[in-house]
Amino acid sequence: MAEGLIAAIVVFVLASFVGFEVINKVPPTLHTPLMSGSNAISGIAIVGALLIAGPKEWNLTEIFGLIAVVFAMINVVGGFLVTDRMLQMFKKKEAKA
């Protein structure tokens, strides 16, 4: 059990560093399309988290699944709102009479 936990922590830390480096190198012009793609991926994470959180008995796995659903929903809704707001900046404004 301890080896699995240590391996999971190592993978999490390495993924955090790689994710930070990848995000840091993205130019601002690609931010909106990448954000839309990440929202779609978060939607997939919501489906997986719902499957984990589904059973009636409450143990640690189901609690983590519920937390994952909440955070993924916040990410999806907030990401779509920000993406929509950014796309509104590119629409032509109507001339006022």
From TrEMBL:
Annotated NAD(P) transhydrogenase alpha subunit C-terminal domain residues: 9-92
Domain of life: Bacteria
Catalysed reactions, semicolon-separated: NAD(+) + NADPH + H(+)(in) = NADH + NADP(+) + H(+)(out)
Pfam families, alphabetized: PNTB_4TM
Name by which UniProt lists this protein: proton-translocating NAD(P)(+) transhydrogenase
Catalytic activity, EC: 7.1.1.1
One CC-aspect GO term: plasma membrane
Compartment annotation: Cell inner membrane
GO molecular function: NADP binding; proton-translocating NAD(P)+ transhydrogenase activity
Enzyme class: translocase
Keywords (A to Z) from UniProt: Cell inner membrane, Cell membrane, Membrane, NAD, NADP, Translocase, Transmembrane, Transmembrane helix
InterPro entries documented for this protein: NADP_transhyd_a_C
Predominant location category: membrane
Entry annotated with the keyword Translocase: yes
Residues annotated as transmembrane: 6-23, 35-54, 60-83
GO biological process, alphabetically ordered: NADPH regeneration
Organism: Microseira wollei NIES-4236
Membrane topology note: Multi-pass membrane protein
Function: The transhydrogenation between NADH and NADP is coupled to respiration and ATP hydrolysis and functions as a proton pump across the membrane.
